[in-house]
């Protein structure tokens, strides 16, 4: 696959973050066109484009928008349809390995603002919030400036571009909690509470912000929308596979020669991306990598030709996630990497659900003693058993994500764990090790 | 002031534990009527006032350097909540500090990817230099140190932030120098981000207010560098290889004349450097439909302003920061020096 800069194309434009530069590169053309369409036509167009959410789950964006209950013509709306609708942007990027949205918001904040305006119009919302990760201060500042410019130019506010449509947009800073990247935790946080996930259903589309119908979309998803509107559904579908099309920002990091942002069609393989990034650093071999951040099961050298799209990665046993491709080589300890990720989940578990709060704590203890050479023969099974007691047993996906690196590292690199055991424990291992796959007990 | 009815004097208000409140620093600036009015301004921005709680906590932190019992009380009073309710929120988020912070907050990423490339070594070295641990402040009040979870800059690993501005591709020595400079009262420029102010200033920004005295300083902050080699590596490589996305077809029904703007002239092909912006700028000033747009269009003139000059020499930006080998690009593999198109070198690096 070739490189296909679409979302990243403006990154190299002089002062790309300004309205002037944005307008000079067909900025807000999509919004003008969208305002000529009906909201329903827009929803259909985005559905037809096949755009799927770029925040990790890959849910079809147009379908998400269509779930918002709308008043039926000629009827007095009741229930959720009668309530105000909200659009909330999930700009709380923090999944380890993920570094695509913050560069986008810094380099091209107006593409997000335009996407917000189009999406809000499509779901008939008059109030949108961009919830930006608190630590992302430069992205926050660029967004605030972009929103101000957009108001001044008539792209936001009362009577957007003379269309009669009103839209208020607030840029809201978080305060350092990974869990707020989970959409319902984000909504709780936005309502001024601790960021803890809600039980679903009801889904945000019915009862989201302030109990009203709400769409929560990721930054890259919304930044794709102006291009869908400008280029049309068929153009967008020309990138990559039928069922998960579009240009995608792949973020390579770690042991590659040229880490960074590479935008290519969905379905590009790691082999192709490694070639672009100059390969693994000279003299070393790739050992393991994540296709989409720390919550996605590891891949190995066997998976370099898996097309990196939602369905192909799932079929190969992992998840596309946020296409955060962290590359590790033979000098990196997979058990230690896994310990670090697990420490992260233990720190970021919001504490609401016992399996996740307690389970991540114990996983850290077990991994730590393995890394310290104090592990026991039982520990490998104990890790998987603990994972089994977390997976699928908490409100949100944080706990599930915490088990991914452990289960997949044991699947592919069991020997690395065994090598860390004291000799006498290693001898006992043959008699006890079961290594049942995680999920078998669920 | 106490945390819960019946608890003893000096019990933490912001904590769930009953540890005594640290003695209030003598020079702690008071929360004023102005702070209260700003809280109300924040509350008015949302359909429901409580949505302003996180911004309000950033705000009180921007005045006092941490979320003090007084700050919690102010938020509670304005929102009609109990102090316990506000304390419960404040303690959930790591960016709200529960004891006075230093002038700057230095965060070292020690998550997996940065760690593999040396993040933990950096943290240990800085810890030793400063004589403080995680979430602790130096005695001179210059620096609060913390190890951070993933800062979403893995392509620039290992990363350090000061007041949340990025200092990319650090190593032990570069970070030690950075921290030493901060302690001397210097403000080395970040590789990505605005010129440093201080922790309180950036907290004010996060609350949703400008932290700058005038528009020029605010603009300079917005215009701080943002795109280093890793951000641009894909788009530069595409240019070098002549690869691009499939072209968009002209729209069948052209809804407004605006969309028929000369695409060839305005599209950032990346092959003409900054010229398209200038061309398009002129075209747009002419085509702009209203005064606001026209004003916006005028600012498009790429030759108009100074800050871009500052950025065109990234190396100049870099010289004020501690000299890191990585910052000169050496750690990043070859910049596309073989690029046939000289103007690319003029763009932001």
TrEMBL record, chain A:
InterPro entries per UniProt: ComplexI_51kDa_subunit, NADH-UbQ_OxRdtase_51kDa_CS, NADH-UbQ_OxRdtase_suF, Nuo51_FMN-bd, Nuo51_FMN-bd_sf, Nuop51_4Fe4S-bd, Nuop51_4Fe4S-bd_sf, Soluble_ligand-bd
Per the UniProt record, one Pfam family is SLBB
Catalytic EC class: translocase
| SMART domains per the UniProt record, alphabetical | NADH_4Fe-4S
In terms of Gene3D superfamilies, this protein maps to: 3.10.20.600, 6.10.250.1450, NADH-ubiquinone oxidoreductase 51kDa subunit, NADH-ubiquinone oxidoreductase 51kDa subunit, iron-sulphur binding domain
User: Any idea of its EC number?
Assistant: 7.1.1.-
Keywords from UniProt, A to Z, are:
4Fe-4S, Flavoprotein, FMN, Iron, Iron-sulfur, Metal-binding, NAD, Oxidoreductase, Quinone, Translocase
GO MF: 4 iron, 4 sulfur cluster binding; FMN binding; metal ion binding; NAD binding; NADH dehydrogenase (ubiquinone) activity; NADH dehydrogenase activity; quinone binding
Q: What biological function has been recorded for the protein in this entry?
A: NDH-1 shuttles electrons from NADH, via FMN and iron-sulfur (Fe-S) centers, to quinones in the respiratory chain.
Report the family membership: Belongs to the complex I 51 kDa subunit family.
Q: What is this protein called in UniProt?
A: NADH-quinone oxidoreductase subunit F
Gene (name only) = nuoF
TrEMBL record, chain B:
Comp. bias (Low complexity): 283-294, 314-336
Disordered as annotated region, ranges:
1-30, 241-349
Q: Which cofactor does it need?
A: [2Fe-2S] cluster
Give UniProt keywords alphabetically: 2Fe-2S, Iron, Iron-sulfur, Metal-binding, Oxidoreductase
| Pfam name, any one | 2Fe-2S_thioredx
Query: Has the keyword Iron-sulfur been applied to this entry?
Result: yes
Q: Which InterPro entries match?
A: NuoE_dom, NuoE_N, Thioredoxin-like_sf
Q: What is its EC number?
A: 1.6.5.11
Q: Name one GO molecular function term.
A: 2 iron, 2 sulfur cluster binding
Q: Which family does it belong to?
A: Belongs to the complex I 24 kDa subunit family.
The protein's name: NADH-quinone oxidoreductase subunit NuoE
């Amino acid at each position: 696959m070739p490189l296909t800069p679409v979302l990243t194309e403006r990154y190299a434009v002089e002062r790309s973050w300004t309205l002037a530069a944005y307008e000079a590169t067909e900025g807000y053309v999509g919004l003008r066109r969208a305002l000529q369409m009906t909201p329903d036509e827009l929803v259909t167009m985005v559905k037809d484009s096949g755009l799927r959410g770029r925040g990790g789950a890959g849910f079809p964006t147009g379908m998400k928008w269509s779930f918002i209950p709308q008043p039926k013509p000629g009827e007095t709306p009741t229930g959720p349809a009668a309530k105000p609708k909200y659009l909330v942007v999930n700009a709380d990027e923090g999944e380890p390995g993920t570094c695509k949205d913050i560069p986008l918001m810094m380099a091209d904040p107006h593409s997000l603002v335009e996407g917000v305006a189009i999406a809000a119009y499509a779901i008939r919302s008059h109030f949108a919030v961009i919830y930006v990760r608190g630590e992302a201060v430069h992205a926050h500042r660029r967004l605030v400036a972009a929103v101000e410019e957009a108001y001044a130019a008539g792209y936001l506010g009362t009577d957007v571009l003379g269309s009669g449509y009103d839209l208020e947009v607030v840029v809201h800073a978080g305060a350092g909690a990974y869990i707020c990247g989970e959409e319902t935790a984000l909504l709780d946080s936005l309502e001024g509470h601790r960021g803890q996930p809600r039980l679903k259903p009801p889904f945000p589309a019915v009862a989201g912000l302030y109990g009203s119908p709400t769409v929560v979309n990721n930054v890259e998803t919304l930044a794709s929308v102006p291009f869908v509107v400008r280029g049309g559904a068929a153009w967008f579908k020309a990138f990559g596979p039928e069922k998960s099309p579009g240009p995608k920002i792949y973020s390579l990091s770690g042991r590659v020669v040229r880490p960074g942002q590479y935008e290519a069609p969905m379905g590009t393989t790691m082999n192709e991306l490694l070639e672009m990034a100059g390969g693994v650093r000279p003299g070393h071999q790739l050992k393991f990598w994540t296709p989409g951040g720390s919550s996605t099961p590891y891949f190995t050298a066997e998976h370099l030709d898996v097309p990196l799209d939602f369905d192909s990665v799932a079929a190969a046993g992992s998840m596309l996630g946020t296409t955060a491709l962290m590359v590790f080589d033979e000098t990196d300890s997979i058990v230690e990497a896994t310990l670090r990720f697990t420490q992260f989940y233990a720190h970021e578990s919001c504490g609401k659900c016992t399996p996740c709060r307690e389970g991540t704590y114990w996983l850290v203890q077990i991994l730590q003693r393995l890394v310290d050479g104090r592990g026991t023969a039982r520990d490998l099974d104990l890790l998987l058993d603990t994972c089994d007691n977390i997976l699928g047993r908490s409100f949100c996906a944080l706990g599930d994500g915490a088990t991914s690196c452990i289960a997949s590292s044991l699947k592919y690199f069991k020997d690395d764990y065994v090598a860390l055991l004291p000799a006498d424990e290693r001898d006992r291992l043959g008699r006890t090790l079961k290594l049942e796959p995680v999920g078998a007990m669920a | 002031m106490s945390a819960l009815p019946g608890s003893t004097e000096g019990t933490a208000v912001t904590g769930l534990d009953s540890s005594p409140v640290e003695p209030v620093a003598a020079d702690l600036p008071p929360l004023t009527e102005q702070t209260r009015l700003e809280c109300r301004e924040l509350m008015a921005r949302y359909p429901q006032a409580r949505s302003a709680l996180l911004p309000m906590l950033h705000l009180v932190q921007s005045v006092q350097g941490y979320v003090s019992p007084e700050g919690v009380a102010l938020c509670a009073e304005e929102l009609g909540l109990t102090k316990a309710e506000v304390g419960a929120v404040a303690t959930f988020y790591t960016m709200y500090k529960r004891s006075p912070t230093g002038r700057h907050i230095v965060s070292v990423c020690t998550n997996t990817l940065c760690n593999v490339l040396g993040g933990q070594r950096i943290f240990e070295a800085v810890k030793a230099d400063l004589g403080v641990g995680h979430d602790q402040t130096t005695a001179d009040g210059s620096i609060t140190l913390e190890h951070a979870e993933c800062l979403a800059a893995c392509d620039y690993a290992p990363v350090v932030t000061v007041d949340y501005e990025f200092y990319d591709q650090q190593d032990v020595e570069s970070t030690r120098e950075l921290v030493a400079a901060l302690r001397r009262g210097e403000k080395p420029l970040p590789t990505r981000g605005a010129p440093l102010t201080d922790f309180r200033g950036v907290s004010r920004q996060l609350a949703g207010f400008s932290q700058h005295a005038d528009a020029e300083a605010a603009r300079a902050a917005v215009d701080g560098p943002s795109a280093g080699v890793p951000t641009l590596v894909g788009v530069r490589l595409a240019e070098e290889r002549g690869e691009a996305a499939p072209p968009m077809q002209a729209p069948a029904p052209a809804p407004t004349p605006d969309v028929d703007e000369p695409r060839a002239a305005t599209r950032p092909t990346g092959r003409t450097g900054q010229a398209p912006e200038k061309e398009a700028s002129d075209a747009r000033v002419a085509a702009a439909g209203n005064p606001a747009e026209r004003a916006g269009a005028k600012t498009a003139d790429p030759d108009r302003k100074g800050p871009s000059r500052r950025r065109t020499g990234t190396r100049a930006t870099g010289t004020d920061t501690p000299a890191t080998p990585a910052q000169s690009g050496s750690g990043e593999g070859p910049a596309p020096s073989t690029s046939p198109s000289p103007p690319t070198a003029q763009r932001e690096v």
